[in-house]
Design brief:
Elements: H1 8-11, E1 17-23, E2 33-39, E3 48-53, E4 61-65, E5 70-73, E6 89-93, H2 107-125, H3 135-151, H4 168-186, E7 199-204, E8 211-214, E9 217-226, H5 229-232, E10 245-249, E11 255-260, E12 266-273, E13 275-283, E14 294-299, E15 302-310, E16 314-323, H6 331-342, E17 349-352, E18 356-359, E19 362-366
Helix pairs in contact: 2-3, 2-4, 3-4
């Protein structure tokens, strides 16, 4: 006598199984990355590396920062300045700069200084002319223009060395530079090349005159998230954002450093000099495929924030089955479940209830 098997629906009554897949290697394409910028943070390590005189022993001083960019006096009332031999100090935002007489620079002033330090630094480093001058003449002209900002006019009699005949060439050029900077500050959208907030303040120790310079040392911050948090969030046995390693290379392909993510998917590389770089993942975290994309990044007086999203990796052999009821799972049911999962390229989460298997809350198979 043949015994009729119980209907499968009856055999799985009161049993709920959740099968979670680790996302597919074939589907593990990066869902886009976006680079945004943020102002440089306080505390960058910069010192005065070089100081010299312009033209004569009693003229403008020309300073160079340890990062290789020109520095400019922003506190002309203070007659004591930093030197390469006595070069320590603190780097901070220009909003924190106050002269020895308590003067501070307003938004319009700071935008002018951003413009001047950006173009003066760029043209000096590229050996190009601006307003008919280059090299040390350009640095001196930019210094005159910044002093003009301090006194509210490029024609102010308070500007140091403005009557020195040996400085006439730089002083004449400074009027053009000042006018261009003022026009830019009136409408900062007119020149998006200028990185607003890139001019930083250098406050030397021992109450020496405050200085300003273009911050050419930035950082790259990376934030990695899952493109499918429905299956990854809370599933720490299969997925983790911690341990991803991104290698940063310069324009010549040389490695300048790496970024390693923490449990929140965040990592940072500090002290990156001005220039163009590429960021690429070289080690993937648990549960995610290796990101094959390269992300171009430009450091230009700002910190860069790079946001990336990864699709979780799909490994059909890594299936986590969670029993919701403390009873024996019928072998036939388990076989059906595994067959469905292994033959479904799109399946992510399958929930088996009394009679229906749901995929993303939509019935796909009636039993």
């Amino acid at each position: 006598m043949t015994t009729q098997a119980k209907p499968l629906g009856k055999r799985i009554k009161d049993v709920v199984l959740v099968a979670t897949l680790v996302a597919s290697q074939a589907l593990a394409t990066l869902m886009g990355g976006a680079a945004t910028t943020a102002y440089a943070a306080d505390g960058d390590t910069v010192t005065v590396a070089q100081d010299s005189n312009y033209v004569t022993d009693h003229g403008i001083h020309l300073w160079t920062a340890s990062t290789g960019v020109p520095m400019f006096c922003a506190d002309p009332e203070n007659q004591t300045h930093a030197t390469a031999a006595d070069n320590s100090g603190t780097v901070t935002e220009m909003t924190n700069l106050s002269t020895v007489n308590g003067h501070t620079y307003n938004d319009h002033d700071r935008a002018m200084i951003d413009y001047i330090t950006y173009y003066a630094t760029t043209y000096i480093q590229d050996n190009k002319s601006w307003a008919g001058v280059n090299g040390s003449d350009l640095q001196a002209a930019a210094q005159f223009a910044i002093w003009g900002i301090r006194w509210g006019s490029i024609d102010s009699p308070n500007i140091p060395y403005s009557g020195n005949g040996s400085h006439a060439k730089a002083l004449a050029a400074s009027k053009t530079i000042y006018a261009q900077a003022s026009a830019f500050a009136d409408n900062t959208a007119s020149d998006p090349t200028v990185p607003l907030g890139s001019a930083m303040a250098f406050i030397p120790t021992n109450n020496k005159q405050a200085m300003t310079f273009m911050n050419s040392v930035g950082s790259i911050s990376l934030v990695k998230t899952s493109a499918n948090p429905t299956i990854t969030d809370g599933n720490t046995e299969c997925y983790s954002l911690e341990g991803a390693v991104y290698t940063v290379t310069d324009a010549n392909g040389a490695t300048v450093g790496t970024i390693t993510t923490n449990a929140e998917g965040k990592g940072q590389l500090k002290g990156v000099k001005k220039g163009d770089y590429k960021v690429k993942e070289t080690t993937a975290p648990k549960g995610y495929a290796l990101d094959s994309k390269e992300y171009p990044v430009t450091i230009n007086g700002k910190a860069v924030e790079l946001a990336v999203k990864d699709v979780p990796q799909n490994d059909p052999t890594a299936i986590m089955i969670q029993r919701k009821m403390p009873r024996q799972i019928p072998q036939q049911l388990l076989a059906v479940l595994l067959s469905l999962v292994l033959n479904s390229k799109l399946a992510t989460t399958l929930v088996i209830t009394q009679k229906i298997i749901f995929q993303h809350s939509q019935p796909v198979l009636g039993l």
